[in-house]
Write a structure and sequence with these properties.
Chain lengths: 117, 841
């Protein structure tokens, strides 16, 4: 009998933008492989996050334009439309358990930002 | 791959409740690492909205009724088998077998088999032309048969029966009869009088209602030709729909040896476990608390309970409130609590208006203190409030009839008492239909004392967000009533009120958000304190709001100096002071709108709004508008919007002063000044008040001798007349008082508090405000005027600055890695001769 080995899918890193393209403590949207991805430069902590740009509440693509901040220690972003907030770490909606967004691996090297898909 | 350690959940039944279970399960984080999900459904279709089944006849397609598209299941890794009911459960081997012979092993089973129509054993019931009303298939049969039928009847005058009868009419039958065994319609929900009102409404629609009718036989050959009743009467019909109740689908459970009730239903405990703890049952097949819950809401709650259970959480299914409100064929019908309460411990108040087709009944305790339940037919507007009052056992007002009749007579509640004087049934959040009573209950009994907690527990403030300030006031009010000291702080990051923080920022000369947060806050800020600090910084220094680190702390609209609209486009509103505009400028607006394909509309504030602009186009649009002499209208800001004016003495035969000139002057003076909330104004040229100045934050009305100044009016959701601050003053005095008034408001109001609310909460009210602004009892008038002058001197059109500054301009792109490309998700639909944003789901 053959044994089936399922390998972890390999992450492909895509160059997204320059560090300076994303405002400090704010976000910007990039288009990678037809996917809208929001990149957040969490400058206060020196951290970067990447999530879907679409808010699942009303399917609006503007999370990158939202305000970021914290709830307790959890870094979060607020959708500009109806202020649903999402954890930048897990993508879980913090104001409504029904919703969540995808998060993506992100890497910053030599002033360039890469997103893993 | 960890699949072999996953718990296998088999869902039997793909109806509304079975679907809801899947939806709630996959919403959990990491669910796929813990469970595999297989769903069996008997029907050929994926789960659809059975509550709105009748809409199938009014044109909704099966696809539109579906709760999720076919692809949804696969997308989420759910194995779905349709047209393939489970026929056998082997509890020993923990396997199920489907009709097609598929064998699937399980760790847990969820029975969501629902219910079927109960068909009484009437002779002739098997004849052609006799239908039930349960599934889309049933409806398809009914539809095709109806094309050759003229007269139809429905057995059963309950909710579903009435809908079915209406459907017969919609299908073009000439007659539609409702035959009910009981002496009234909807016998489980409403009383005889309510039924009477409902009946006359239904008869007006063309239905014929027969009560007290016991169907004894269905007559005809192969096909139905009529019905005969126990009282000897008969009715000729070509088709018949049976809607005489439901029968839980418990046959599979019974065969598997699970405990079922003799009269139907799979017996479950508070955790919705059947007599086999690995098998759950929810929805209309389950018998919980000795009853079948025949509504969708308790079914959904059951789904949530089982999901929680699978994740090891303690959650029980509690007796569920069966109060209902529905729009039945266009007639509101609601019942709540105990609608039929009677006897010596109970008093009943009823109201009936036959002309309008309204019937209302409330049952209250003999001592008049508590609401036990009631019925509303024809007008169910008070349903939410009554339900809250009933559920919360709120003490009733001295005249309980006010509950259904509303306040009569001229008495007006004192504005100063503010939100706490609102009745309990006042709807605070209209998006989610949440009343004051519901929110107060959360605060008092469940300890929810922050906006975030209330958002989670009630969903208040999660729709449009317009109720947030009201909810904040409620929290404060309730805590104060409980004798707790309430510090009115901004949010978890700042332990100061807006007024305190404004003073600290001013004294320390801070101009960035980072500076303010580092010195006076903690954490990383949030969507509450960021715009509040942004407003403070703008109100103190009036520097461009997008410079330094301020762009990212601005609220949605301020961030891009435009109003974000459905679909993610923006609207553009150039300033048109006083509503006065030249033909040349009108032409430019038209040309710009045409060039960028914008929807145009005249606003309520006498200007023109251009909708549907892509983020990328905003700087180009503004460049053209600015070239033509326009400035930002700050429609996106918590700032002065417009000063509306009537045409005044320059043209009007009644005008006593030049209201347009004064309006232009006032608008030019205060334009661009940011405040805790938006500011609207109006100037009227005479007492006829055509500019509606008394509904504005500040309004000016011409008199023979000069001007009257009114302040703190409001339109909007809670209209309030402005109050008179000064009489017969000249222009210069008027401006001086306005400088003081506005600056005092800017410095002391809470975030997002309009002037009307600010005044309502002010101790001493208008008398105190007059003392400060007119009589200068605090000795701050000169300072307020000076501060206002600084703001005015620092004004610059922020759009002009953006257009001329490449660094700021660069931020107006949707994709930073493809700056020329517009958001492909933006979609429009045609609307009359223009367009509109595509409706969201």
């Amino acid at each position: 009998m053959e044994s089936i080995v399922i390998e972890r899918e390999e992450i492909t890193w895509h160059l997204a933008c320059h560090v300076a393209d994303v405002p400090a403590d704010g976000g910007a949207c990039v288009l990678i492989e037809d996917r809208q991805i929001a990149i957040f430069n969490y400058a206060r902590r020196g951290e970067w996050y990447a999530t879907d740009n679409e808010c699942p509440h009303r399917q609006q693509t503007a999370l990158a334009r939202g305000m970021i901040g914290s709830q307790g220690d959890e870094p979060k972003v607020a959708c500009p439309f109806h202020k649903k907030t999402f954890s930048l770490k897990t993508g879980q909606c913090l104001t409504d358990a029904e919703y969540r967004i995808r998060t993506y691996p992100i890497r910053v090297e030599a002033g360039l930002v890469y997103i893993g898909l | 791959m960890l699949a072999n350690t996953n718990k296998r959940v088999v869902v039997i039944g793909n109806g509304m409740v079975g679907y809801k279970f899947c939806e709630k399960l996959i919403a959990r984080e990491n669910w796929a690492q813990r469970f595999t999900l297989t769903v069996f459904g008997e029907e050929p279709r994926v789960a659809y909205d059975r509550v709105h089944l009748s809409e199938y006849f009014s044109g909704k397609t099966a696809d539109e009724l579906a709760l999720a598209p076919d692809t949804w299941y696969a997308e989420h890794g759910i194995q779905l088998h349709l047209s393939d009911p489970v026929v056998h459960i082997d509890r020993e081997r923990k396997e199920v077998r489907s009709h097609h012979g598929l064998v699937v092993s399980y760790d847990y089973i969820l029975l969501a088999t629902g219910s079927g129509a109960f068909v009484p054993a009437i002779p002739g019931v098997e004849k052609e032309g006799v239908f039930v009303y349960r599934t889309i298939e049933d409806l398809e049969f009914i539809q095709s048969y109806a094309s050759k039928a003229r007269r139809g009847a429905v057995v059963g005058g309950g909710l579903l029966g009435l809908e079915a009868a209406k459907a017969l009419l919609d299908l073009g039958l000439h007659e539609a009869h409702v035959v009910e065994f009981a002496p009234r319609l909807m016998p489980r929900q409403i009383d005889a009088a309510g039924s009477g009102t409902l009946q006359s409404q239904l008869e007006a629609l063309g239905l014929t209602v027969h009560l007290n009718k016991n169907t004894q036989e269905i007559i005809g050959g192969d096909a139905i030709e009529g019905m005969r009743f126990a009282d000897g009467s008969a009715l000729d019909v070509d088709m018949l729909i049976i809607s005489a109740g439901i029968r839980p689908r418990d046959e599979l459970a019974k065969r598997a040896g699970l405990e079922t009730h003799p009269r139907g239903g799979i017996v479950v405990n508070d955790h919705l476990q059947t007599s086999d703890p690995d098998i759950f049952a929810i929805g209309e097949c389950a018998l919980a608390h000795q009853m079948i819950y025949g509504l969708v809401a308790p079914g959904y709650e059951m789904a949530a309970v089982v999901v929680a259970r699978l994740f090891g959480e303690e959650k029980k299914f509690k007796p569920f409130d069966m109060s209902t409100k529905l729009k039945l064929i266009g007639v509101d019908v609601a019942s709540f609590g105990n609608p039929f309460a009677e006897g010596p411990d109970c008093r009943t108040v009823t109201y009936e208006n036959k002309a309008k087709g309204i019937y209302k009944r409330i049952n209250i305790t003999a001592d008049g203190k508590e609401l036990l339940g009631g019925i509303l037919v024809g007008d169910a507007e008070q349903y939410n409030g009554l339900l809250q009052t009933c559920k919360n056992k709120t003490i009733l007002p001295p005249d309980p009839e006010d509950l259904i009749l509303g306040l009569r007579g001229g008495e007006e509640t004192a504005g100063a008492a503010g939100i706490m004087s609102l009745p309990d049934d006042a709807l605070i959040c209209s998006c989610e239909a949440i009343t004051k009573a519901a929110i107060c209950n959360e605060i008092t009994n469940n300890g929810c004392t922050t906006i975030d907690q209330l958002k989670k527990s009630t969903k208040a403030c999660t729709g449009c967000g317009g109720c947030t300030p009201l909810v904040k006031d409620l929290i404060q009010g309730v805590l104060k009533q409980q004798g707790l000291y309430v510090r009115n702080v901004l949010c978890e990051h700042f332990d100061y009120s807006r007024q305190e923080l404004l003073d600290l920022v001013r004294i320390n000369g801070l101009k960035t958000y980072g500076g303010v947060l580092n010195q006076f806050g903690k954490g990383d800020g949030c969507e509450v304190c960021k715009p509040a600090v942004a407003s403070i910084l703008a109100s103190l220094w009036n520097e461009n709001i997008l410079e330094k680190d301020r762009a990212t702390i601005q609220d949605s609209n301020d961030r891009f100096l435009a109003n974000i609209q459905k679909g993610g486009t923006y609207s553009v509103v150039p300033r048109i002071p006083g509503g006065e505009i030249t033909p040349d400028k009108l032409i430019v607006i038209g040309q710009v709108a045409k060039k960028y394909d914008l929807y145009t509309k005249i606003t309520g504030g006498q200007r023109i709004d251009l909708f549907g602009a892509h983020l990328n186009d905003l700087p180009k649009i503004w460049e053209e508008l600015i070239d033509a002499g326009f400035e930002s209208g700050h429609a996106y800001g918590k700032a002065l919007r417009t000063v509306k004016s009537c045409v005044g003495s320059t043209w009007c035969r009644y005008g006593v002063q030049d209201s347009v000139s004064f309006a232009v002057e006032v608008e030019e003076r205060y334009k661009g000044i940011r405040s805790p909330h938006k500011l609207k104004s109006g100037v009227s040229g005479c007492i006829r008040e055509c500019a509606e100045a008394q509904s504005k934050d500040f309004g000016i009305i011409a008199t023979e001798k000069g001007w009257n100044l009114y302040v703190c009016g409001n339109g909007g959701s809670k209209p309030q007349h402005a109050q008179l601050l000064a009489t017969d003053i000249d222009k210069e005095t008027c401006i001086r008082l306005l400088d003081r008034f506005l600056m005092f408001y800017i410095k002391t109001a809470d975030p997002l508090t309009r002037t009307a609310t600010w005044l309502n909460k002010m101790e001493g009210g208008i008398t105190y405000l007059k003392a400060v602004v007119v009589d200068d009892v605090l000795g701050i008038a000169a300072e307020l005027e000076r501060e206002m002058q600084t703001l005015i001197d620092n004004y610059a059109c922020e759009w002009k600055e953006v257009v001329e500054n490449p660094h700021l301009r660069k931020r107006f792109t949707h994709f930073i890695n493809a700056p020329e490309q517009k958001d492909p998700a933006v979609q429009f639909e045609p609307l009359r001769t223009q367009k509109r944003a595509k409706e969201w789901k």
